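CORE FACILITY INTAKE
Project code: CF-77B
Contact: R.S. (postdoc)
Sample description: multi-component assembly, four entities in total
Requested service: structural model of the whole complex
Turnaround: standard
Below are the sequence entries exactly as provided by the requester. Do not edit them.
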Amino acid sequence: MMLKIRTDLAVEAKEIWQETAEKQTKLEGVIARDSEKNGFKITTVEITDERGERALGKPVGTYVTIEIDKLINREDNAFTLCAETLADVISSMMKLKDGDSVLVVGLGNEAITPDAVGPKTARNTMVTRHLVEKMPEHFGTMRRVSVVQSGVLGTTGIETAGFIKAVVDKLKPDAVIVVDALASRKMARICRTVQLADTGIIPGSGVGNARAAINKETLGVPVLAIGVPTVVDAATLAADIVSEAGVKDLEPEDLANHGINMIVTPKEIDANVADIGKLIGYGINLALHGDITLEDINMFLS
Amino acid sequence: MMLKIRTDLAVEAKEIWQETAEKQTKLEGVIARDSEKNGFKITTVEITDERGERALGKPVGTYVTIEIDKLINREDNAFTLCAETLADVISSMMKLKDGDSVLVVGLGNEAITPDAVGPKTARNTMVTRHLVEKMPEHFGTMRRVSVVQSGVLGTTGIETAGFIKAVVDKLKPDAVIVVDALASRKMARICRTVQLADTGIIPGSGVGNARAAINKETLGVPVLAIGVPTVVDAATLAADIVSEAGVKDLEPEDLANHGINMIVTPKEIDANVADIGKLIGYGINLALHGDITLEDINMFLS
Amino acid sequence: MMLKIRTDLAVEAKEIWQETAEKQTKLEGVIARDSEKNGFKITTVEITDERGERALGKPVGTYVTIEIDKLINREDNAFTLCAETLADVISSMMKLKDGDSVLVVGLGNEAITPDAVGPKTARNTMVTRHLVEKMPEHFGTMRRVSVVQSGVLGTTGIETAGFIKAVVDKLKPDAVIVVDALASRKMARICRTVQLADTGIIPGSGVGNARAAINKETLGVPVLAIGVPTVVDAATLAADIVSEAGVKDLEPEDLANHGINMIVTPKEIDANVADIGKLIGYGINLALHGDITLEDINMFLS
Amino acid sequence: MMLKIRTDLAVEAKEIWQETAEKQTKLEGVIARDSEKNGFKITTVEITDERGERALGKPVGTYVTIEIDKLINREDNAFTLCAETLADVISSMMKLKDGDSVLVVGLGNEAITPDAVGPKTARNTMVTRHLVEKMPEHFGTMRRVSVVQSGVLGTTGIETAGFIKAVVDKLKPDAVIVVDALASRKMARICRTVQLADTGIIPGSGVGNARAAINKETLGVPVLAIGVPTVVDAATLAADIVSEAGVKDLEPEDLANHGINMIVTPKEIDANVADIGKLIGYGINLALHGDITLEDINMFLS
């Protein structure tokens, strides 16, 4: 059975498999476990072989999901705890050595709010490469970090993956972090879930146009993908609402190809994407630069 | 029968009434007629008494709808023809005298694209009041036009209608044009319909918080409201999609209170709102300043 | 002797008087004193009667100048100390009672960086009026603060002072704070000095077009003006540079009417104006709301 | 004699040489000529050998200057005529063959208005590469044009010339156009002169930090540099003003190292840079795509 509906989240792909598969079937090639840190729920889905790939429609690798409702609801102290949690997951997935350099890539279009997760993250990431190289006496303890925002295809005429490949060939970083907005299948996860995957990403894969991947195979260095779902598709929304209202139990597939020119996003999308971009940027900063504080980051970025 | 679902368009309110009323019932207190100008379809709904008010849930007055699909599809020459059509309707609804002054109010929040129809219009409207007063030798043939953008409530702490009332009391214009984004009940009308109403407007009325009206009663001068629907609510979308897909025939009411924190808007909303703001601004300019050309407006605004 | 050259700072007007007056002359009608708080130098110039008015070209009142070099140089902890110092001066000049409401007006044009002090301050000021009125159980201990940004004349066709008068008549605040960019006569003071004056302000007075004042006489309530010089005029710059270089001792008056279409501003103007807008906004917040912390403000504004 | 003061314009370097050289000296290795097109004055300075290089402090090559006062003053029809004139000069300097592809690079920082000539041009340049490749049936007659904006060094950590080299190696265009803001030595030329040079450019060369060049040697393909001066330095302004006022005849060198942290720019810089970015973008579009009209460009970019 192949997954046909649209989700970028491994944790959802697994849910969908379970809903649709026969009860007695076991999901082979996939290991999942839950944990918690600082009060944030973390789910890890590991796809270990091609049986798992086939079942979930995603490549072999590790997918970690952090639930960030507390941050979006702006509970007391949630930002600090959430950024530290994210930094922790980033560190454990990247396994960087001292002195390694990192390129952070913000995908997406800043002018379209639900697509601005990458650009907003880029603005909250400390660019240190030139400082470390020119003023090692002051910045020598930091990692060298460069940041690029890939404009969308239409604004440069250059295909995203090719553009990033060119930058990587020039800078030769030891690792790449690529940040993008995702699509989810459940309204409840929109803007409330961060997924980290060591498999890289295929930009805009959900939108149906096959583009080149951004991953270790294409770039030659490890790629950590960080994403947050900011939209559901209209068919998903419709199926969710109709089922919730108890009118009829529907799957999004039943409604495929309807409402395809619409996007569905939270009313608070502006505030949400601002919070998320800050979270991911600060999480990256904390993970990459040993003993830095949130206050140091505030000062550096202001 | 009172209308409970959400639409800002009189033409839709009438449709809904007809769908739900018994076939033999006649809609009293409402006169409707279709016409065409420059290839654009125009529908006029007149609510003539309180029977019409009750049936359609809107105050007595004239509601004119122009279908602007050609503009949004960027057909050849559509902008010019559409702006002239709009100017024509504005002129016929406002009945201004020579020398009358006008205040144009752009409602909404520029930072949220589907809510930016008012601010975008404001940017495309020629501000002439100070020029006419200070350089009558050059600008004396133009009408005196002032423009304000009401920030949203949260950014000033001042309630919108009260703020506009204060400006009107100060400037004493002969008429007010108020421009806002609306909500519609049909996906197909989103960004494709302009409604003009001589009844004024209740800002954010659809969102359920009762605010003071902006109309002739509250401001003391005639108020023309111009609006374009840019969002549908999630329940509407869901009902539309489910019915379209032939799964079940639903009314949005069946799904009320679901998906209420989501907005549904076209993928092309940025381009659409830019086109619409330019259309309304240019339409207003053409209507208010006798023998001006589109080229003059381009020059003035650039 | 009347002052003819361009400065908005009382402290400079006094300096200029002293440079040009005969040594034996005493400056009557003016009292000046220096003090210090939190390491910031504070100068108070009081113009006590019309002799002082004539000599300095400014109305009777109190003008307090805080030197903020440490903030602009981003010394450790400077922001906190500087905001508290500013709050302290604001409190002592405004003498508000519990429950008093305040209107904060940001003058200037956000699109022109050196003119954006007012708009940037507006963005950093907590708008509480609607919250206090609607949710007194949560916000009842705060003062009611409203914020308006007056667009520049050309964007609305409405004269600034008249616009603010209309808002004041509507809101009936107990006091007004008006924030604007100023001009200085010394390069060294640009972006490094905050002036507070209980005399109000004449918007754009330096640019030579007489506009209506914004002060207690015109608005009917006390007006505190807060300003920071962000530009020098070209003649001032030229005279300064020529004198510094030891080439010739010149006064700006010798060069009047040259370079009048140019503005002179620091290379770092973007960062400076961002810092200044944040400083003034936070200073206002601390002064108006009893026991609030910087952290509370961060949270409120984010 | 080596030129020590700051100008990016060959035509000014020549003027300065002539002011300072003895009357009887002939400027060897430089050919200059004036012409006119569509009412715009055009000056061509050709540096033909190393004597010219030494005298003017610029590499061998052709430097064409167009005076655009009419555009900035917004005379009737000036935009059309000026864009056509510019397109004509671009065409004659680039000598492209049918089917050649071009990379347009906008240097500078959009957030700092006088530095935004490159980014504004980028926004007004038609990106066609992906369209020609994917929809040759519709766009096959156009040249393939890609556009990149190089962020400033501090926002990416990547050195500009290296970044562009990486993009060129990836895209392999047949030619590069690089657009940047320049510095001039005369106030009167600010925002009123476009310089085109077939020598490429050294980004930020005037600011004194030696960076890698962007030219045929470094990129391997011909590079056309297009620039407009938007700032003068403070010493230049001071010398100009003092001399204009008849106070003393000074050269900027006499005042070197004074006012070095200030920038001097026209009061109308926002409008000027908007006009200039549109001019250069439209000029490039007209030059690169055979039979396109201004109306086509408007439609494409809107």
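Facility notes:
- Chain D has one domain: 10-301.
- The radius of gyration of chain D is 19 Å.
Invoice: internal transfer
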